[in-house]
């Protein structure tokens, strides 16, 4: 599949005013995702039990426990449940940053990135910052930091950044195993489309081991994850997250035959391929 430059998020970033700053929130200690999902699901299930409307769901939680619920989540599903999506967002959003740069023409370029370790290393898409200057990141608590570009992986459209002035507390993401994905699994994307900070979109894994040729590369990027969660300019560099709350990919592009809007086909570089720039294995 060969795409024109207008078919990809990069080169189409919002121009003009910078994205709205992230809300000022104090970073807190991470509560395990398993506990949050259970907490969100347990209350409505208890209410349903009192009304005697859905014995099966209640008994699944009470007798099978969270293991039974997780087993259900591992089955292909047409769309993630609202409770799961909310828990995923709460778990991953503190690890997502805004990435901004000034392009060679002087216009702003923006996207997302994800913190991957306690040294404030950040994975993002190379096309956001390539050829740019004044590169900065904004953490979820609103802290703005200059960065150093640690590595560039042009064959994967990946850049590794290190924040030089991170906040005292920040939350690295948990890296997952893309090899465990199946078509139909829930998929979550967090980013800043059109400057709308901290936006969540949901969908499913649509394909595996895809290839896409970018306008500035002679060889296609291979081994990509295809998904249908909505992505638009400003989502590039953000995390693709699985149903466990683990980052399994870095969003890189979309198929866009009709214009500058999402048509239902997005791609992400697998996290093990992206993290190779730091020698970080998946958990």
CATH topology: Thrombin, subunit H
Gap between N and C termini: 31 Å
Report the sheet with the most strands, covering strand number, pairing sense and barrel closure. 6 strands, antiparallel, barrel
Percent of residues in beta strands?
25-35%
Order of secondary-structure elements: HHHEEEHEEEEEEEEEH
Q: What is the percent of helical residues?
A: 10-25%
Low-confidence stretches: 1-19, 21-29, 43-73
* Gyration radius, in Å: 19 Å
Task: Give the overall shape, derived from the CA principal axes.
Answer: globular
Mean pLDDT: 76
The structural domain count equals 1
User: Structural class given helices, strands, pairing?
Assistant: alpha+beta
Quaternary organization: single chain
Shape-level CATH architecture: Beta Barrel
* Biggest sheet strand line-up: 1-2-3-6-5-4
CATH class reads Mainly Beta
Count of DSSP helices?
A: 5
How many β-strand runs?
12
């Amino acid at each position: 599949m060969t795409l024109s430059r207008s078919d990809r998020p990069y080169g189409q970033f919002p121009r003009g005013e910078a994205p709205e700053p992230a809300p000022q929130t104090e970073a807190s200690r991470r509560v395990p995702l398993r506990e949050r999902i259970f907490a969100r699901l347990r209350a409505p299930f208890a209410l349903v039990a009192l009304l005697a409307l859905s014995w099966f769901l209640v008994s699944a939680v009470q007798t099978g426990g969270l293991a039974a619920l997780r087993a259900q989540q591992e089955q292909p599903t047409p769309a993630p449940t609202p409770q799961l999506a909310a828990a995923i967002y709460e778990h991953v959003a503190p690890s997502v940053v805004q990435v901004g740069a000034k392009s060679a023409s002087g216009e702003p370029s923006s996207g997302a990135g994800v913190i991957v370790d306690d040294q404030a290393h950040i994975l993002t898409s190379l096309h956001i910052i390539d050829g740019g200057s004044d590169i900065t990141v904004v953490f979820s608590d609103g802290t703005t930091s200059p960065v150093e570009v640690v590595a560039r992986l042009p064959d994967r459209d990946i850049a590794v950044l290190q924040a030089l002035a991170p906040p005292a507390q920040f939350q690295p993401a948990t890296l997952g195993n893309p090899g465990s994905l199946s078509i139909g699994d829930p998929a979550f994307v967090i980013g800043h489309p059109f400057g709308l900070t901290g936006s969540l979109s949901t969908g499913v894994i649509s394909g595996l081991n895809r290839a896409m040729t970018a306008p500035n590369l002679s060889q296609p990027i291979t081994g990509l994850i295809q998904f249908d969660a909505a992505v638009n300019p400003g989502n590039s560099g953000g995390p693709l997250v699985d149903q466990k709350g683990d980052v399994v990919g870095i969003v890189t592009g979309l198929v866009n035959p009709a214009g500058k809007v999402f048509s239902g086909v997005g791609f992400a570089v697998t996290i093990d391929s992206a993290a190779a720039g730091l020698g970080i294995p998946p958990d």
